[in-house]
Specification:
Layout lengths: L7 E2 L12 E3 H4 L4 E2 L21 E3 H15 L3 E7 L4 H10 L22 E8 L28 H16 L2 E4 L2 E7 L7 E2 L8
Parallel strand pairs: 3-5
Antiparallel strand pairs: 1-9, 2-4, 5-6, 6-8, 7-8
């Protein structure tokens, strides 16, 4: 029987998850683009939350994301990932950095969170020819009504692009949330444990 090598917040009936189950999506999906905004000050907190850039997912999740990338490439498009696995200590740092009026947009680390399970991605679509982001109506971590997937006031082109992202992600096993068009959870995410391994500990 395999032994877990990560410290986890244990919940009964959850699978055993080892550090080797986490993969760098850039190595598994060579053509995918990443911009790990929480390793920079280019995020809504203005602070570095991660010690270094990293976009990690559980391998089954990453393999499904690879199928999304492959389908988009047939259209001359690809994915740009802003955030994926978030270590539990980083979730705490994010929580501490957020002002009280924005805490409703961030998962309380005491409750774990979706990103901390390595089953969630924040992403958008880019054109392969020039790397330009498709118009989605807002950028990442926009906490206004325009961030809602079905916001009626964004342009028709942005609505079309959101639908493209929504449809291709859902086709390959991901579930959207209503208030963040960029956020997708792998189906069954609740069945995976919260992880607290930092990026420096991932080979």
């Amino acid at each position: 029987m395999r032994t877990c090598t990560l410290t986890i917040l244990f919940l009964s009936a959850m699978p055993c998850v080892a550090v080797t189950d986490l993969v760098d999506i850039s190595t598994l999906i060579p053509n995918i683009k990443t911009d790990c905004v929480y390793a920079t000050t280019r995020n809504f907190t203005g602070k570095k939350i991660y010690s270094k850039p990293g976009c990690y997912l559980l391998k089954p999740v990453a393999l499904n994301l690879a199928r999304v990338q492959k389908e988009l490439e047939s259209k001359g498009l690809g994915l740009l990932v802003w955030d994926a696995y978030r270590p539990l200590p980083a979730q705490q740092r994010l929580w501490d950095a957020v002002s009280d009026d924005k805490k409703k947009f961030v998962a309380n680390p005491k409750m774990g969170g979706k990103h901390t399970r390595a089953t969630t991605v924040d992403l958008t679509i880019v054109r392969l020819a020039d790397g330009k982001l498709l118009d989605m109506g807002t950028g990442h971590d926009d906490f206004t009504d325009k961030a809602y997937y079905d916001c009626p006031t964004i342009s028709n082109k942005a609505k079309e692009n959101r639908k493209l992202l929504h449809d291709v992600m859902c086709k390959h096993g991901f579930e959207p949330i209503a208030h963040e068009w960029w956020h997708f959870d792998y189906k069954g995410w609740r069945n995976y444990p919260v992880l607290d391994v930092e990026f420096d500990s991932i080979a």
